[in-house]
Amino acid sequence: MPFPGDEHTGTRIAHHRKRAGLTQRGLAQRVPYSYSLLTQVESGHKPASPDLVAAVAKALSIDVTALTGQPYVTELQQDRLAALVRPIREALDLYDLGADPAITPRPTPQLVAAADGLCQLVRATRLHDAAVDLPDTIAEITTAAYRSPSSVLWAALSSTYRTAHDLAVKLGYYDLSTVALDRMDWAASRASDPLLSAVRQYMRALVYFREGEYTIGQRLVASGHGLLELSPETRERQAVAGQLHLGASVIAARAEDADAVTAHLAEAKSYAKRVGEATDVHWLSFGPTNVRLHTVSAHVEMRHYGEALRQAAKVRIPKDWPASRAAHFYVDQARAQMEAGRTEAALKSIVTARKLAPQQTRYHSGARETIRSLIHLSRRTPDTLDHLAAWVGL
Predict the structure, then answer these.
(1) Residue ranges of the HTH cro/C1-type domain (predicted)?
(2) What pLDDT, on the 0 to 100 scale, is given for residue 102?
(3) What's the sign of the alpha-carbon dihedral 379, 387, 14, 299?
(4) Three-state DSSP class for residue 286
């Protein structure tokens, strides 16, 4: 069955390949994927996996979003999210103007609670609500921090910039996410909080991971561990260290370094035993559950789909687990199920991801590729799959 619509990641790969003056064989020689797979991806008969997209983008010296088509503006407009991006961009740009004379900030405890509340909204995938509140919260905490500087206020401001990064990534505005991380570091340095700076390095590493720059990603993780040396040994530090190892595990998996994957997961598991479930620490969701989820992700990245599904069967997600992280797991599981030929199970996983985190799943490029591939593999498209395809804009 043909794919709906004329444009998909494969057609974008073909377009940019031709613009670079390369044949399909010429491009295949520059990426670690076969000519046969590349032709099938361009024609829409095979899904464009994130690792392939990153490799092609790197070979063609373009951004990954040029191939994924992000941000998905039509759907963002339908969800009334597109108009909310500009105020966030302006809030990030005006960071150095100092206190706004028109603002009377709330007391510090209320501002800290507001910053945490934004993180909580993103974890609950209430992206629209978070995007509405974020610009004014940034402006208010900025004013408070300039008028009465304190580590607590600068840390709260750093947290709001982290929320801006999270929103930008989930909505497909990767250029904006990079600006947000710069602002996060600017505020974290004023808070004199090495843990915040380490979290920022973790997030930077994942930015380079998405772009296929795995060596840089690994260096950023190492830098994050170095920053932790400036902090006393606490549960918070251990949670951040463990999360850095989880980030390193998926970077190593994409780089096809199985030994490094095993080593990083073992380190993360060791930290998780000491820390327990630490969803409250910098909203990283670190703990035994996240170690299991990253184990699945690592096997998916290494294209060990059978092992990924065996590991996924062991996962038991707590009831209070953040919807954003749980939905990401089901998207990973769906990809593994689809590649293993379990199309009905893959569809169920995508439906579950949508129920848990509708806005996040709608704008997830991997979820879109899986839905597109399920349509191609289906002799008769189930109504549920038709509805999913229309919902994500295919």
Answers:
(1) 13-67
(2) 97
(3) negative
(4) strand
Sign of CA dihedral 342, 322, 210, 231: negative
Same domain membership, residue 146 and residue 29: no
Do 388 and 338 lie in one domain? The reply is yes
Handedness of CA 266, 316, 120, 217 (dihedral sign): positive
Query: Count of CB atoms within 10 A of residue 145's CB?
Result: 26
In sequence order, what are the beta bridge partners of 286?
Answer: 278
- Residue 278 pairs in a beta bridge with 286
Per-residue pLDDT at 260: 98
Inter-residue contact 62 to 135 (CB < 8 Å): no
Domain that holds residue 16: 1-68
Q: Give the C-alpha separation, 211 to 202, whole Å.
A: 15
Q: Is the dihedral of CA 145, 148, 149, 150 positive or negative?
A: negative
88/183 same-domain check = yes
Same domain, 147 and 179: yes
Distances (CA, A) of 310 to 52, 105, 246, 305, 333: 24, 51, 19, 9, 10
Phi, psi of 153 (to 5 degrees): -70, -40
Mean pLDDT for each consecutive 10-residue tract of the chain (394 residues)? 62 94 94 92 88 93 90 86 93 96 98 97 96 98 98 98 97 95 97 96 96 95 97 96 98 96 98 94 95 98 97 94 96 95 94 94 91 78 73 72
Q: Among residues 223, 144, 215, 145, which one has the least CA distance to residue 186?
A: 145
Domain shared by 300 and 346, yes or no = no
Last residue of a domain, one of 141, 163, 192: 192
Domain count, the chain: 4
Res 2: pLDDT? 38
Run of H or E including 198? helix 194-210
